[in-house]
Structures are given as structure tokens and as C-alpha cells.
Design goal:
The first copy, chain A, has 4 helices and 8 strands. The N and C termini of chain A lie far apart (37 Å). By secondary structure, the first copy, chain A, is α+β, with helices and mostly antiparallel strands. In chain A, a hairpin with a 6-residue loop joins β5 and β6. Chain A is 18% helix and 33% strand. Chains A and B meet through α2, β1, β2, β5 and β7 of A and α2, β1, β2, β5 and β7 of B.
């Protein structure tokens, strides 16, 4: 049986948008921390379920984005969940290191407080350490 | 100072998409449970920050969607966070009752397991109890 046939029930339940994409929320499986939100196409869903390493679709680079391929900050899939109407995925993962390209554990580090935005998390590593001289 | 001026820093940090919308993830603030994902427009963000009750934008009804207005299952805002590139919001909330129109606590109740989808949460209330005779 091919991988596509194996994952047919999951793929059938997902309502990809007009661009063939679905939003995917990554959450650290044990702490509950919401790490990031990115997009997946059909191939990214199949690759993620097959390899158990999270692969997104990069809208800016127009291609598969194997999280951590450049930075080493990979996400290991524990469980993929599909929401009630099939238009959002929740990925319960183990995040190696940090999820955010700024070096913070989570991308959600700016909180709306007192009419402004306050940074509520510090970088754990420098972007230079993650990506070398340029962020790519 | 108007409410718009009060929330200007937050609104300026959000990159609304071509349809004027931004995805918003709702998470129960104390348990970490991811409840749902929906969309907000500018007015929904302002109303949510002003009233501290979560208001989305319904793409199907093309209007503001005050969560719980029909069902009583309101979401009280504890904190709104903006991600690193401003294109996703995380709402840390207190969810009254259930978030999902199926009567389940969370919309993410179908898990990809063994090549299929398995329901991992039961309804806590019936949709009829939430919405009366028809779901609307």
C-alpha cells in the first residue's frame, strides 16, 4: 500500500483552501506551549505523517519547508489532529531547541498590554547561531 | 483617547491578509488546551481588546461573530499575543463550557492514527442543547 493510500482518510478530511493550503498550529506536546502557526499543502501533510518530522509549505519560497533543515531546530510529530470542519490542523510535537527564527522558544512573544505590545519572552539563542551570517 | 488610538500599536503589528483577516488561535489559559482557530478582522480585534470577550469574523456569515452569543459558550480574553511576523494571533482565554459546535471542549478531536482518523474527545453537551433545533 502506498503512503498516499495509507493517509487517504486524513487527507480526505482536510479542506485545503483555494491555494491548496491548510493552517497548522504547532504545540509542544507535554507543556502545552503554542509554538507557531504555519501552512501545509497536501505533500507536506503526507511527508509529515510519513517521516514524523514536521514539514510545512513555505508561501514565500513556494516549496516544502522541512522545519529545522537549516537551523537544526526540528519538530518531531507526536500527533496530528484535524478540527471539526477540517480547515485547521493541530500538530502536537516535540520541538528541538526553539521554534522562532528570532531564537525564542515560541513565535508568540509579544503581548497586547496597556494599549501597547510587550515582549514576554527572551531569545534563548541568537539568530546568527541558528542561521549563520544571514537569516535564510 | 479613542479605543482605536488605544489599540493602535497592536493593530499596527498585525499583518492582515488580502481579505483583511488574520487567523486567531484560542487556547485555554490555564490548561494549555488548544480549543479552536478562527479569523479576525480589524473590528474584531478592537472589539475583543475593548470588551475582553472574544469576537471573531465569520467568513461564511460575512460579519462579526461574538463567540457564545447564540450558544452561551463565551470566551473571556486573558491575553492576546501577536507572533513574530504579525500574521497570526494567539488568544489565551477562559472558555465557558465548550468551544466546538459539536459540543466538545475543543474542535481538535480527530487524531490521525494508524492511517485513519480516531475521535479522541466526546461531546460534553448536545448541539441541540447549545443551539436549539437547528445549528445556527
Amino acid at each position: 500500500m502506498s503512503e498516499h493510500a495509507t493517509h487517504a482518510a486524513v487527507l480526505d478530511a482536510i479542506r485545503f483552501d483555494a491555494n491548496g493550503l491548510v493552517p497548522a498550529i504547532a504545540q509542544q506536546h507535554d507543556t502545552g506551549e503554542v509554538l507557531m502557526m504555519a501552512w501545509m499543502n497536501r505533500d507536506a501533510v503526507i511527508e509529515t505523517l510519513t517521516t514524523r518530522r514536521v514539514c510545512y509549505y513555505s508561501r514565500s519560497r513556494k516549496g516544502l519547508w522541512r522545519k529545522g533543515e537549516t537551523s537544526g531546530q526540528t519538530q518531531h510529530l507526536h500527533e496530528m489532529l484535524v478540527d471539526c470542519d477540517g480547515d485547521t490542523l493541530l500538530l502536537r510535537v516535540h520541538q528541538e531547541g526553539v521554534a522562532c527564527h528570532t531564537g525564542r522558544r515560541t513565535c508568540f512573544f509579544r503581548a497586547a498590554r496597556d494599549g501597547g505590545l510587550v515582549e514576554v519572552a527572551e531569545p534563548l539563542v541568537s539568530p546568527e547561531a541558528l542561521y549563520g551570517h544571514s537569516h535564510g
